Amino acid sequence: MKADPVRFLDLLNQKIQYVVPRWQRRYRWSESEITRLVEDLLAVGQAEEADHYGGSLLTFPEPGQPGGVLPTARVVDGQQRLTTVSILLSCIAESFEKSDGKHNGWTAENIREELLTNPRRSPERLRKLRLQQGDEEEYRAGLEGEPRGSGAVTQAWKIVRRLVDRNDPARLFQGLERFHIVSIGLHPHDDPQQIFESINATGLPLAEGEKVKNWLLMGQPDDVQRDLHDNHWLSIERHLGARHTTEPIDLFLRDVLRWRTGELRGKDQAYEGLRRWALREHGASLSARASICRELARLARLYGILTGSAGPHGSKRVELELRHLRALGIHVHRPLSLRFLDDASKGDSAPTHPELAKALGTIGTWLTRMWLAERPMAGINKAAAELSNLKGPGPGADYADYWRSQIQRRQNTRVGVPNDEDVTRGVRSRKAHGGSATQSSTAVLCALMEAEHGEESPARKHLTIEHVMPQKLTSAWVEALGGRSHRDTRTLGSPPRESDPERRCHERQTGQGYVRREAFNLQE
């Protein structure tokens, strides 16, 4: 490893291409980080004989490069700054071109030819900086003068253009001339994974999903890395709806880890926990990491079906149960529900779709009754992790009955399924309108409506909670409710009188509707 202080522009003013590898994080800088860099450059550009040191750029040579070709350096750390400076140079060139401006002999033309591109090279080698898929398309479009896309790179183009328009581009370029970093070049025998984890000059901590991606892909042969990234990791991002954010991947990894270990771990422990589990169960070889990456891609599709980001389940009956779980807005069940979906994907010995639907319906009943009874959901986090890690039913056992019995065994704990009296008490008293409560109450009321009216029920997307009971009662509602002038619709309310048209709704909530489907025999 060799470290040298160097002007940033000198790094770019070479015949070289910097490549952000597939295992790297995506571009993440927001307006605050970009603005801070621009303000630093403006201050340095204005000061006399001042230099600015802005962290480090950590690279290692592309393995197996033959002599005489354009050298390629893979960026281990520093891509956020490298990308932002490249965008800034392009926007300064645009400004110089419009005003016929220049600074110290630098014009729009030679900024592009000497700092942003490698002239007379193939399209693949033309740009000094090549980002990873997704970011690369947005970066290339920006260089061509038409930024497009919804990712962070396109947003950076818009932010930088606005900042350049507001300030003196010549002073910004002068700041860039005084911008120094420490360039750290690794030798082929250095371990980039170990160094990458110990150096983070951007000030943005890696998300758990980014750490897992790095660990799975780094060090793999190039063809294997390309296959894992393009055919499996991008599939994870697509199924989880995580192209521009790592949050869904972090949650997915946390829930997979809870399932596989039976332990309650937080989202911020996903990387270390998954890595320890993988090393313990599968070993540390590169082939083991490749297998884990492929398995995570398979599970991500199931998790996306669970959350809805990967589309609906193929079975209408299963999808009906999943839709209710999604609509409730309560996510603590996901390690167990993911386990059910995985069991159902295992071939001849797998539970059938009707069995899977019944098992998911058991979870739906459990959560619905917990919510109606106004019980805290926190304990279900641990219960779902422990249940999902159980061995499962043996050959010939009824799949749904097995899991229902496992949940019933917790009847005398704080996560036991509430009985009818508990549900009735909760319905009378709980706040069911406003904030997150509105989502859950809407899910329950829609399920009751659909249980009664079936296909004649209106589509949920056209309904709000006030379609069920208006907050301000009309005279027709007052008359229908027996002449009462007011009813607080923030609660599901006390049981109405026998003559009230709302009586049937209350009975379904507490005894005969969705919350009694797949009913637990709670009196035994």
Q: Could you describe the 3D structure shown?
A:
This protein is an alpha/beta fold and 524 residues long. It contains 22 helices and six strands. The chain has helices spanning 8-12, 31-46, 79-99, 108-116, 135-143, 152-166, 169-177, 192-198, 208-217, 222-240, 247-261, 270-282, 286-307, 316-328, 334-343, 353-372, 378-388, 399-408, 420-429, 436-453, 475-480, 503-512, and strands spanning 2-7, 17-19, 52-61, 72-77, 129-130, 179-185. It has a six-stranded mixed beta sheet, sandwiched between helices. The longest helix has 22 residues, at 286-307.
What order do the SSEs take from the amino end to the carboxyl end, as H and E?
EHEHEEHHEHHHEHHHHHHHHHHHHHHH
Judged by helices, strands and strand pairing, the structural class is alpha/beta
Number of DSSP helices? 22
Helix content: 40-55%
* Backbone shape: elongated
Question: Any idea what the radius of gyration is?
Answer: 29 Å
Mean pLDDT: 84
Number of strands: 6
Low-confidence stretches: 486-524
Give the N-to-C terminal Cα separation. 70 Å
Largest sheet: 6 strands, mixed
Read across the widest sheet, the strand sequence of neighbours is 1-6-3-4-2-5
How much β-strand is present in the residues? 5-15%
